[in-house]
Prior knowledge:
Structural class: alpha+beta
Number of helices: 12
CATH architecture of the largest domain: 3-Layer(aba) Sandwich
Helix content: 25-40%
Oligomer: single chain
Strand content: 25-35%
Mean pLDDT: 89
Bound molecules: adenosine-5'-triphosphate
Shape: globular
Distance between the termini: 40 Å
Strand order of the largest sheet: 10-11-12-7-13-14
Number of strands: 18
Amino acid sequence: MPNKKVKCPNCSHIIDISGNFGETVKLTCPSCGISGKVIFGDSRSKKEVAIQVNNLKKVYGELVAVNDISFKVNKGEIFAFLGPNGAGKTTTVEIIESIRQPTEGNIKLLGKDIATSFNEVKEKIGILPQEFKSFDRLTVRETLKFYSQLFKKRANIDDIINAMDLKDQENKLYMNLSGGLKQRVGVAISLVNDPDVVFLDEPTTGLDPKARREVWNVIAGLKKQGKTVFLTTHYMEEAEFLADHIIIIHKGNIIAEGSLEDLINKYGEGSILNIKDCKTKDAVKILQENGLEVNESTNGDLKIKIDFKDRVLEILSILRHECIDYDSIDIRRSNLEEVFLHLTGSKLSEEE
Ligand code: ATP
């Protein structure tokens, strides 16, 4: 039976509950005694599915590039397929786009089986391929016009130019744009048919941090327009910033799936409040006596696990009341790098 944690609205005590999805669970707070009801909801199960991948396998000669993976992407979400180089991301996304053929498995895209009915949905998707390049001697506006003519359904080009923040560049030749602007044009091209689902394969690879942020803002805007975004990336910050739903793929296998919160809660250290240079001798004992999980690191800093946000105020109050002396404090949240390290034993940023 699924479990959840809920916060008592009266005293903020955290209560563990279990129930079936959709069930109304009656509960009484063990701390203050107030009673109430909670609907045990599963928000994901109510959403419509845009992409359903079942038991997908792709073998190249001796190499199993994608090993029997299954997952679904809901409509309207930004989905990040995160993994190091060679994990199987492009193979998977290009099979969904019908560019490559699977060895085994089946895929439904917007409710249609792509093996038999891809033509019925191909006008409803937009694609930014990996290492995208366009025509050097066309301007941004000419480029969008050219691609738009390939489709029956056409979005308004001015709307795309404005949404992608390309107004100042619309008459510049593609060859004269910076790397970040070229990628923005690439995302803009993927929108010329006003698609329901947009596939972006490594949209920010090779960009500097500023250009990467600009592309992220453009991608976040696609969600606001109601589009489903399938993003492949090897940048964990990209998945952290953008994604509602993340799958980590490693050597062709799905090794974790969930929201950023889910993954951090399950595989990360959670949030840690770090007390630097603590000068009070019995600080660890005092904090532990107050019910806190404290670890002393080799440099003498005290690390306290924060399992919910009100803990910070509680800790500050204890430090003050117990006159614990220290230099400074900071709060660090777990990230996907830590999640990946926990799952694979190596850092995502260092995998090749
Ligand atoms: P990258 O970001 O580097 O493209 P990826 O996660 O997208 O990585 P894929 O491109 O899907 O990974 O490649 C998965 C594995 O399959 C890699 O080992 C790659 O060398 C291999 N591979 C990909 N395409 C082919 C092909 N056409 N023939 C043989 N092997 C291939």
